[in-house]
């Protein structure tokens, strides 16, 4: 396709939303192509409805495999309705979470297995994935402390309420992915002040995009 596809990943409390809010205006100044920022779960109307279902704190009875399948279903709709059309139109698509999140959260955190989660998402996406992933890394306890400190000003969802051990498994799965795919996944220390994290992310994008970054 004519466009470029880049994802941002990280455990809860890594600050992806804040980083992307500050980063996107910088990206738009440096690339000639249109920039599409989207998110998962969600990004499309049907996908957003699935997001509400997945993250609702009331859904305590949701089975881990049900959760994983819902994420994959949301992702499929999002890909077909938003990501693929934007790429076909020549946009730089930057997505807040993609398949790596499912591998980390459901495969690692829920302990249903990374390979099983990869398989269901391969079916959902047809094997399509990003050319670059920026992984914002933070210690699990520090990430949860951030969430608690900003609980009044952010969505406090079902995954935020999980134990420290759950979030440690999520981070371990992310680090395993980053080690296995160093060419695609670039790690940024998210414990730094926001301005430094944003600058580090911009540097990663500039290096990857090359002549497309002016």
From TrEMBL:
<dbReference type="Pfam" id="PF02223">
    <property type="entry name" value="Thymidylate_kin"/>
</dbReference>
<keyword id="KW-0545">Nucleotide biosynthesis</keyword>
<dbReference type="InterPro" id="IPR018095">
    <property type="entry name" value="Thymidylate_kin_CS"/>
</dbReference>
<feature type="domain" description="Thymidylate kinase-like">
    <location>
        <begin position="8"/>
        <end position="199"/>
    </location>
</feature>
<dbReference type="InterPro" id="IPR039430">
    <property type="entry name" value="Thymidylate_kin-like_dom"/>
</dbReference>
<feature type="binding site">
    <location>
        <begin position="10"/>
        <end position="17"/>
    </location>
    <ligand>
        <name>ATP</name>
    </ligand>
</feature>
<keyword id="KW-0547">Nucleotide-binding</keyword>
<keyword id="KW-0418">Kinase</keyword>
<keyword id="KW-0067">ATP-binding</keyword>
<dbReference type="GO" id="GO:0004798">
    <property type="term" value="F:dTMP kinase activity"/>
</dbReference>
<protein>
    <recommendedName>
        <fullName>Thymidylate kinase</fullName>
        <ecNumber>2.7.4.9</ecNumber>
    </recommendedName>
</protein>
<keyword id="KW-0808">Transferase</keyword>
<comment type="similarity">
    <text>Belongs to the thymidylate kinase family.</text>
</comment>
<dbReference type="InterPro" id="IPR027417">
    <property type="entry name" value="P-loop_NTPase"/>
</dbReference>
<dbReference type="InterPro" id="IPR018094">
    <property type="entry name" value="Thymidylate_kinase"/>
</dbReference>
<comment type="function">
    <text>Phosphorylation of dTMP to form dTDP in both de novo and salvage pathways of dTTP synthesis.</text>
</comment>
């Amino acid at each position: 396709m004519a466009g470029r596809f880049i994802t941002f990943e990280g455990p809860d409390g890594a600050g992806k939303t804040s980083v992307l809010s500050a980063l996107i205006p910088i990206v738009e100044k440096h690339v000639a192509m249109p920039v599409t920022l989207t998110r998962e779960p969600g990004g499309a109307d049907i996908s957003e409805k699935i997001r509400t279902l997945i993250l609702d704190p009331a859904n305590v009875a949701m089975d881990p495999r049900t959760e994983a399948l819902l994420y994959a279903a949301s992702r499929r709709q999002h890909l077909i309705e938003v990501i693929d059309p934007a790429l076909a139109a020549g946009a730089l698509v930057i997505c807040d979470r993609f398949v790596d999140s499912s591998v980390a959260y459901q495969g690692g955190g829920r302990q249903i297995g990374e390979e099983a989660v990869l398989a269901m998402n391969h079916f959902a996406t047809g094997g399509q994935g990003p050319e670059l992933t920026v992984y914002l890394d933070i210690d699990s306890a520090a990430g949860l402390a951030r969430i608690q400190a900003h609980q009044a000003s952010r969505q406090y969802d079902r995954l935020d309420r999980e134990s420290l051990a759950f979030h440690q498994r999520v981070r371990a799965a992310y680090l395993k992915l980053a080690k296995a795919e160093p060419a695609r996944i670039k790690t940024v220390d998210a414990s730094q002040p926001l301005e430094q994290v944003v600058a580090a992310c911009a540097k990663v994008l500039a290096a990857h995009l090359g002549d497309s970054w002016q």
